[in-house]
Amino acid sequence: MMQAIKNIFQLGKKEILSLCRDGLLMALIVYSFSAALIVSYNASTDFADAAIAVVDEDQSQLTQRVTDAFLPPLFLPVDIIQRADIDRTMDEGRYTFVIVFPVDFEKDVMANMCPEVQVNVDATRMSQAFTGAGYIQQILTNAVSDFVRDSTGTSSPLPANMVIRNRYNPNLDSAWFMALMQLANNIAMLAIILTGSALLTEREKGTLEHLLVMPVTPFQIMVSKIWSMMLVVMVAALTGLFLVVRMYLQIPLAGSYVLFALGMAVYLFALTSLGIFLACMSQNMPQLGLLIILVLMPLEMLSGSATPQESMPVWVQRVMQFAPTTHFVNITQGILFRGAGLRAMWPTFLKLFLIGAGLFSLSLSRFRKSVA
């Protein structure tokens, strides 16, 4: 028993030293948990700095008040253009929104004639078009209502007041969410790539056959690659979490780092086993790369990191319950955002461990057949 543990430790140590000599993979690890997190943080989907123009054919106090209501950081300074310039400027992509106030707009509003305001939207800018149209409608409604109330001296109070409180992310800053989900996605990518490449590299160099004639078993070889790559990814991910996410990006993290590290260890156990399985299905590194693309992209896109699973078809939700990425996204959001403890997260930990055990058994069986 002690000799088996010693063999596993020495083989894992060899894998770590071999990885340290691979400059390309080391650069990928450093980039994945530093610059990649910063890029995802800055690629926020929040509505901001929308280019807007106004065609004011009324030239009234009301239209001026509405125009002044489009303020930063939601909108760039408003440009005043002519009706004849609408098509040309939007074709050139200069404005996302162009608002047209008709003649006698203020007069018709005060006469309660319900005049129409034309809002032209460049729908090719999908990240701003849908959300921005809602903001413009709200700003127009509020500005016109305030103007009418100030002019007539009458007010019609609402029958109820709505108070909205946002938990965990009070300012609805999507950059917080994107940085942490990018961290989770990079963990999955590196765990599969590093473990799979470690096995294929030995097969291509012929050193795998050398190991098989030594007094080591396929189980020991596989476990050594799993624990060594788990350790590398865990150290790199936790370093990126503390130095980049917490200190540099100043994203508040609510939960226990120890509990998150435990969840990451279970997650890596599942993904490194998957990496071994994919490597056994491949003959060379290009084939492994294609398999990783086919497997990893659905795992990440349907895991709930990009969009809530509740918005997906029911059959997709059920299938993704067998994917380790789904449960790790729940662990990441539950612990680091909501501050959940082990009492709330243990069912997810158990599901993730069972998935990992299944993947490990499947990978070990396939690995023994491939080296037989």
Tell me briefly what this model is:
By secondary structure, the chain is mainly α. The protein has 15 helices and four strands. Helix 4 links the parallel strand 1 and strand 2.
Task: Using brief descriptors, characterize the structure shown.
single chain, 372 residues, mainly alpha, abc type-2 transporter like fold, 2 domains, four-stranded mixed β-sheet, 15 helices, 66% helix
Describe this protein's structure.
The chain is 66% helix and 4% strand. It has 15 helices and four strands. A four-stranded mixed β-sheet has the order 2-1-3-4, covered by helices on one side. The chain is elongated, with a radius of gyration of 28 Å. The model has no long low-confidence stretch (mean pLDDT 87).
Indicate the topology:
Layout: H1 2-20, H2 23-32, H3 35-42, E1 52-56, H4 61-68, E2 79-80, H5 86-91, E3 97-101, H6 105-110, E4 118-121, H7 126-152, H8 174-205, H9 207-212, H10 218-248, H11 257-280, H12 285-301, H13 314-320, H14 324-337, H15 342-371
Parallel strand pairs: 1-2, 1-3
Antiparallel strand pairs: 3-4
